[in-house]
Amino acid sequence: MSLVLDNIGLRAGATTIIDGMSLTLRRGVMNVLLGPTLAGKTTMMRLMAGLDQPTAGRLLLDGKDVTGLPVRKRSVAMVYQQFVNYPSLTVFENIASPLRVARLPTAEIESRVRHAASLLRLEPLLQRMPAQLSGGQQQRTAIARALVKRADLVLLDEPLANLDYKLREELREQLPPIFAETNAILVYATTEPTEALLLGGETATVWQGRVTQHGPTSRVYRQPANLAAARVFSDPPLNELAVDKRGAEVITAAGRRLPSSGVLANLPDGHYTVGFRCDDAALTRESASAPGFAGVVAVTELSGTESFVHVDVGIGTWVCLVRGVHDWQPGAAAEVSVDMHRAFAFDPAGNLAASPAMAQTA
Amino acid sequence: MTTITLDGIAHAYTRHPRSDRDYALRPLHHVWEQGMAYALLGPSGCGKTTLLNIISGLIIPSEGRLLFGERDVTRLPTEQRNIAQVFQFPVIYDTMTVAENLAFPLRNRKMAKPAIAARVAEIAAMLELTPDLNRRARGLTADAKQKISLGRGLVRSDVSAVLFDEPLTVIDPALKWELRSKLKAVHRALDLLMIYVTHDQTEALTFADRVVVMNEGQAVQIGTPEELFERPDHTFVGYFIGSPGMNFLPAAVDGQYARVGGSRILLGASYPALTDAVRIGVRPDFVTLTAGNGPKVQVRRVDDFGRKRLAHVTLDGLALVATVPDSMDGIGTETGVTFDPAHVLVYQNEIRVEGTPA
Amino acid sequence: MMDKPWNNKAWFFILPVLVLVLFSSVLPVMTVVNYSLQDSMGVNNFFWNGDAWFRDLLDPGTEIGARFADALLRTFAFSFAALAVEIPLGIAIALCLPRRGWAVGISLVITALPMLIPWNVVGTMWQIFARQDIGLFGAALTGIGLPYNVTQDSVSAWVTIVVIDVWHWTPLVILLSYAGLRAIPDAYYQAARIDGASRWAVFVNIELPKLQKVLVIAVLLRFMQTFMIYTEPVVVTGGGPGSATTFLSIDLVKIAIGQVDVGSAAAMSLVYYIIILTACWIFFTVMTQLERRGDS
Asked: What is the mean pLDDT of residues B26-41?
């Protein structure tokens, strides 16, 4: 029971938009497509829905070839970033609209709409018009409409992107149990690593029209197969350090010599890119084994619970996490210590050479 | 040096407001200081845009006075107020080059040509617009156009204030932090009073020296980002700042302890006996799951945020979000929880009660 | 763009449109082309004439050529005069119309009224309107001592025709400009006030550029309509005095129906048609260029 993309390609003239993509999306798990804007997530969804046709490859639904089958003949529901509801219909009628099109009996429509409304906590709002709803309520209505149809394939294209952060927080909590109840193949596109982690399930990281990694979400996060996947799955951006390993030493691009510790310790000599996330770059010296880099604070981004200090360390700007809200002033001197035991090492081709998880299993 | 004084400014869209609910903006006293960056932060409909429009002159407040320095400008039209404003969507003059766009406010005020050129060059350099100076503004991307709008807002050095109305709405998410930091740098370089309206906490906290948190027409707290995080004066601030927001638990407080259900929780200060409409507030960051110490909680769910894990638990039937330490593996259904006393605050009728140091 | 799977059923759906186009445009044009290449000696007695009609028509030395050149020049002059008045006047009036409140609906309806009157009625109205004895327009001008006589004086005739067109069709320019002005977000006006811009600067730097696309459409529509003007001059001046207001369309009818000179008339129609097509093509190119430069 799955949707299989078999070597799917899409070209427009000379430009390749989707490049030989193979992916198996299973029923009963949340399939997350994670990638930055314009990475190709929306295009992939349009191909899956049958809104566009691929120029190469096949699309198999539960083993049947559905390539070229127009969208009308497929069982698809879609939720968009913009809140798409019929402005002249009540919430009830909005949710019921796909069932009315399918000419279901009134009693069946009534019970399905009530059920979807109760899942999405829309019961008190059923007689309202979309214009009277908040953004969160409008998007919940759109999601209810997608679920009520009981389509084989439910596509959610950044459904929370246009909501304020408090509403986004709320819906992120509410959605996973609701989705768990459906029997559809669920595909959820997002630009935000946090959202992918909270949705769980399986994640495919998308970068420039390619799937760079696909697997259980937590594993993709903790063991990115390549530099592209690690970059996509890091927010703030992944910090990177290019090194040349020679025996017990590594030499940075700036010519600095460091002991080859942590993730680099057991690797053969050669060039590597060390990638580490903001929580593995501390602004104070934590242990003698962590190499320290002197730098200057460029700017501090304050979310409500964390502070992301961007530090210019001469060979690039790194982002360091400080828990709580602490305003490090631009221009202040800072020392960044990198926890090499939690970093990733990538070979010159960009593939993962060593990671903390690999060290654990070894 | 100009300050902007809100002297009992209030606004109601109805003719005869009776209760607080009739006010889009409830009476507010505040002095905005020269050289400072302020953010007005709140959900939609909280009154932040009304306040901005009062300062810019688009709305004449129904009560109170607005002073720029010593001058009463309450009823003056926008053009006589000496302010600059950046809007949600880029406003550029299509027919002009980028340089002409930036120079426009200065040219209209008959500034000398060499002085204009120097100032335009300075602002363009700050916003990294220098390579585009001689290009037509109309062909540029939305991001670049909004940078031009920002530049036109910042180009005059003699304004009383620069107002920003959610200026990063149209900016690509990947570029947002870059512009946020640029604005911060510009603010440090230019000695201007800046007021920034947004519903996004990261934008507000990152940009501003002082954040005004607004809700239902009321400024519930004005403080530094640290203050809003560490010591929210109002439960709304605790909820609105932080993802997720603060935990609030109904409690009875006496001396150095709060009683929540059947558990006794140590507080960081001493309080008189409080029982009526009392809640304690503590951020998830300061509640930690333990293997066994402290009050018992039932674990409902654990959310993995990658760099941290948060557990949704119940303490005597009350919902609570707590941090799961990195070292903790295999969380059972029942475990202990500890509170950091210094960060457990006491609220009565939604307002924080100041304790006496213990 | 993309390779689409072939679907032969699609042809079936566009077939009716193709048939319709065949009968409504292709066949009539081919008939005209046919006439333009032949001469006739009496009814149903046609013989091949090659490009002779066209050579005569485009050579000002011949009688027909001179007549055509005059009419063409006159028609261009009329289009130019009408546009030169209507476009600025339309923008100016649109700027004066209220932007909000109860007055919007009323002023728009009043503005639009002249457009709702059919051409021949307009002509008849103005025929009476322009009379020196009882017409409001004619009598008023005569009354203040101007030498006005629509049937005898060519300046009077010209002024009258232009005034009719301005009265009849400026509302179209007003409505288009008004829609364009309304589409400008308030933030632009507010920004301009904050930037200290004068009213003139607002017009030149905000309103005019934002009206550009709308104005191209207005110019295109008005050019095509004025270039094909027929009914009003026929009714009011009959193309006179002399041939002062004999525009191309009128001349065409005179030659074709009055003189039954089908070959000449057909050649003339084709040249006329090509001029209009060329004008449309130029406007279309300008519009797509504007579109591509993409300002939002």
From this structure: 92
pLDDT score at C156: 83
At C1, is the pLDDT very low, low, confident or very high (cuts 50, 70, 90)?
Answer: very low
* Range with lowest mean pLDDT among A262-266, B293-297, C120-124, C238-242: C238-242
| Residue A296 sits at the chain B interface (C-beta within 8 Å) | no
Distance from the Cα of B221 to chain A's closest Cα (Å) equals: 15
Contacts of B85 in chain C (CB under 8 A): 190-191, 194
Classified by CATH at the fold level, domain A239-361 comes out as OB fold (Dihydrolipoamide Acetyltransferase, E2P) (2.40.50)
Summarised one tens digit per residue, pLDDT across range B95-109 is 899 999 999 999 998
Measured between alpha carbons, how far is B149 from A269 in angstroms, rounded to an integer? 52
Contact between B193 and B161 under an 8 Å Cβ cutoff? The reply is yes
Question: Which residues 6-25 on chain A approach chain C with CB closer than 8 angstroms?
Answer: 10-13
Instruction: Give the whole-angstrom CA distance, residue C154 versus residue B37.
Output: 72
A residues 59..78 contacting C (CB < 8 A): 68
**Per-residue pLDDT at C35:** 79
User: At residue B312, does pLDDT exceed 90?
Assistant: yes
* pLDDT, chain B, mean: 90
Interatomic CA distance for residues B214 and B197, integer angstroms: 11
State whether residue A348 sits within 8 Å of chain C by CB. Answer: no
Q: Do C2 and A68 touch (CB under 8 A)?
A: no
pLDDT tens figures, B39-67: 999 988 888 999 999 999 989 999 999 99
- The number of beta carbons lying within 10 Å of the beta carbon of residue C110 is 11
DSSP-derived secondary structure letter, A163: S
**What is the interface pTM, i.e. ipTM, of the complex?**
0.89
Using CB atoms within 10 Å of the CB of residue C13, give its burial: 0 to 12 exposed, 13 to 18 middle, 19+ buried. Answer: exposed
Would you list the DSSP string of B273-342?
EE-TTEEEEE-GGGEEEESS-SSEEEEEEEEE-SS-EEEEEEETTEEEEEEEPTT--S--SEEEEEE-GG
* Assigned token pair, C211: 């009206």
Nearest to C168 by CA among C131, C212, C120: C120
Fold adopted by C60-293: MetI-like fold (1.10.3720)
On whether any CB of chain C is under 8 Å from the CB of B169, the answer is no
CB atoms within 10 A of CB B99: 22
**Which residues does chain C have within 8 Å of residue A10's beta carbon, measured at their own beta carbons?**
2
- Give the pLDDT confidence of C196-231 residue by residue, as tens digits: 888 998 999 899 988 988 998 899 889 888 888 888
pLDDT mean across residues, chain A: 89
Classify strands B210-215 and B37-41 as parallel, antiparallel or unpaired.
parallel
Question: Do both B295 and B255 map to the same domain?
Answer: yes
Nearest-Cα distance to chain B for C196, in Å, is 6
Domain coordinates in residue numbering, chain C = 60-293
Parallel, antiparallel or unpaired: strands A344-346 and A333-338: unpaired
Residue of C184, C188, C193, C195 for testing the chain B interface, max B β-carbons within 10 Å: C195
pLDDT of residue C8: 66
Structural tokens at position B55: 């300062």
User: Percent of chain C at pLDDT above 70?
Assistant: 93
Q: Which of B83, B94, B142 sits opposite C194 (nearest CB)?
A: B83
Q: Return the CATH number of the domain spanning residue range A2-226.
A: 3.40.50.300
Q: What pLDDT band is residue C267 in, cutting at 50, 70 and 90?
A: confident
**Ranges of chain A with pLDDT below 70:** 284-290, 359-362
Q: Could you give the CA distance from residue A176 to residue B182 in angstroms, rounded to a whole number?
A: 37
Asked whether the beta carbons of residue A53 and residue C4 sit closer than 8 angstroms, the reply is yes
B329 in contact with C, Cβ within 8 Å: no
Q: Are residues B223 and B307 in the same domain?
A: no
- Structural domain boundaries, residue B254: 247-357
Using DSSP's 3-state secondary structure scheme, residue B156 falls into coil
